[in-house]
Design goal:
253 residues, alpha/beta, Rossmann fold, six-stranded mixed β-sheet, four-stranded antiparallel β-sheet, 8 helices, globular
Length: 253
């Protein structure tokens, strides 16, 4: 059975700088992201992983090429239309947790929700369900990010990112600033969301994070250098771990 393509990028070009100082990130990159997949983008430092994610999500325009997001070429949208498109179609989780410090967790989430929906009660009900999914108890909803752990704040950030039912959830090194226990809790949330059908694109250099994906894409020299199908995530599956180890070794990790 063929998978449905959610994002299709063709002949992407991206460079920084000018003249002799120009740095080409990718010059003819092609990639398809499939609906329902947990796609992990890996590669060495400076390979262009995050730059690619920003392009696919419309956060940054490529210098050339086309990006069809559910059939819409987002490279043709002006900045205002692109902002509206991102708000409706994309969720974002970063290494840095961008919660509004003066707002409690629930208000952070509701504020994001009302940007696309005017039914505040529906948003609140969905927020409560999501907080339950990420194991943040009700007594914590009224706390600010300064009053909770980094892991709780990141999990709250994920709730905010998916409050509007995004087509694709994008994550850039989401566990990069967390300890191992909090990292595991955050990764469990991504797995739970994926099990419920959420499409995810995650950039990471962390093998434990990469193991959560079902499709691993390795970028090298501005190209898709290789990819690996890990299938559905299973905890403590040594065969899965060995398969990923072998793949990234072949890629020159």
């Amino acid at each position: 059975m063929n998978k449905q393509i959610s994002i299709s990028a063709k002949h992407l070009k991206k460079a920084f700088g000018k003249g002799e100082s120009i740095q080409v990130i990718y010059s003819d990159l092609n990639i398809d992201i499939y609906k329902g997949d947990f796609t992990v983008i890996m590669g060495s430092s400076g390979a262009g992983k995050s730059t690619l994610m920003y392009s696919l999500s419309g956060m940054d325009k490529p210098d050339g090429g086309e990006i069809y997001f559910d059939g819409v070429d987002i490279t043709k949208l002006n900045n205002d239309k692109l902002a509206v498109f991102r708000r409706k179609e994309c969720g974002f989780v970063f290494q840095q947790i961008y919660l509004i410090d003066k707002m409690n967790l629930m208000d952070n989430v509701i504020t994001a929700g009302v940007l696309t929906s005017k039914n505040r009660e529906d948003i609140k009900n969905r927020a409560e369900e999501l907080f339950s999914l990420v194991n943040i108890p009700e007594k914590t909803w009224r706390k600010t990010s300064a009053q909770i752990s980094g892991g709780e704040a990141q999990r709250a950030g994920i709730v905010r990112a998916v409050i509007n039912n995004p087509n694709v959830l994008f994550a850039d090194e989401p566990t990069g600033a967390l300890n191992s226990a909090n990292s595991a809790a955050v990764l469990d949330v991504f797995t739970s969301l994926h099990d419920k059908g959420q499409s995810i694109v995650m950039v990471t250099h962390d093998k434990k994070s990469a193991l959560r994906g079902n499709r691993i894409i390795y970028i090298k020299d501005g190209k898709i250098f290789g990819e690996c199908d890990l299938g559905k995530f299973e905890q403590d599956n040594m065969e899965r771990t060995e398969k990923l180890d072998k793949f990234i070794k072949e890629m020159g990790w």
